[in-house]
Design brief:
By secondary structure, this protein is of the alpha/beta class. It has helices at residues 42-50, 92-100, 107-120, 136-148, 166-178, 193-196, 216-220, 238-246, 264-275, 289-298; strands at residues 3-13, 16-27, 31-35, 57-63, 77-80, 154-158, 185-190, 201-206, 209-214, 226-231, 251-253, 256-261, 281-285.
């Protein structure tokens, strides 16, 4: 079994540290997520894992079941990163044909392989369009198709899955989960709680530091509080009233105010009694991975 081991990895860019003291291991066949907000260090870390860059401190090593360790991950990894890798002047189909030729894929199998990924990523109708003329979502889909066209055992996708439309995301995740049978390792960088929840394990980054490694459910268990949601706000002073009354951080999300509560029933009663005439709806919800990130970055 092959695994990727990061040991005390740090990366300095200019005079600042983008990553510090990152240590974890990715097992063969895992769908492993690198989860964090913009600026947390996800893309920098994925470039190191992909072999496109080298750490300032520490090591990133591929441990082989045959006993031959290697730091040359770039030769064994296929990547779809946020930095475009497609030739903009070529069509989608021409790009996939070109990249397929770079991997040891039998010539007879390339046509059917390209057709499969065009269908999977919803690119059939734009296969003859130049990449420069694609919408951002279609460009993201084409980048993912380029990475999948390889026959490598390690595939890195950074921040592109959440740019796909819902049907394409669903098909892609069904494909990723099915590749477990082939022991393919997927490493997925994302700021989306929905995508992170589908991974086997997560490395959570905040401000360049590793704050958690483990299963999404274990991360969720770190937040026991329910979330109290106040909707249909008619009074601009409600946010400050809630903060003063409950002594907690109040966030605004999708037009509603939310805060964590240790006493859900009592707090709902207080909200209704004190500001009920100014709101349209008050309810409780379970925390999400987004809430976990909010708590991590607020601590």
């Amino acid at each position: 079994m092959n695994s990727i081991a990061l040991d005390d990895v740090g990366k300095r860019i200019g005079h600042s540290w983008a990553l510090r003291e990152i240590t974890f291991e990715i097992n063969q066949g895992e769908n492993f997520g690198v989860f964090g907000r913009a600026g947390s260090g996800k893309s920098t870390l994925l470039r190191l894992i992909s072999g496109l860059d080298h750490p300032t401190t520490g090591t990133v090593v591929l441990h082989s079941s045959g006993g031959d360790d290697s730091s040359w991950l770039d030769a064994q990894t296929s990547m779809a990163l946020q930095t475009p890798g497609l030739a903009p002047e070529l069509t989608v189909a021409e790009n996939l044909k070109m990249f397929a030729s770079l991997w040891p894929i039998p010539r007879k199998g390339r046509v059917s392989r390209i057709a499969m990924y065009l269908e999977l990523l919803g690119l059939v109708n734009v296969r003859n369009k130049q990449v420069r003329d694609l919408s951002p979502g279609m460009k993201a889909a084409a980048e993912v198709a380029r990475a999948l066209i390889s026959n490598t055992d390690i595939i890195v996708i950074d921040g592109l899955i959440e740019q796909l439309d819902r049907p394409t995301r669903r098909r892609l995740w069904e494909y990723i989960l099915a590749r477990r049978r082939q022991n393919t390792t997927f490493i997925i960088g994302t700021a989306s709680a929905d995508e992170a929840a589908l991974c086997d394990r997560l490395a959570v980054l905040s401000d360049g530091r590793l704050v958690f490694v483990g299963k999404p459910d274990d991360l969720m268990n770190a937040v026991q509080n329910e979330i109290l949601v106040v909707e249909s706000i008619h009074n601009p002073l409600i946010k400050s009233k809630l903060r003063d009354r409950f002594g907690t951080a109040v966030t605004e999300r999708s037009g509603a105010l939310e805060f964590r509560t240790n006493h859900p029933d009592a707090d709902v009663a207080h909200v209704l009694a004190e500001i009920g005439s100014d709101v349209g709806c008050v309810y409780l919800r379970q925390p999400t991975l987004d809430d976990v990130l909010d708590r991590i970055e607020g601590d």
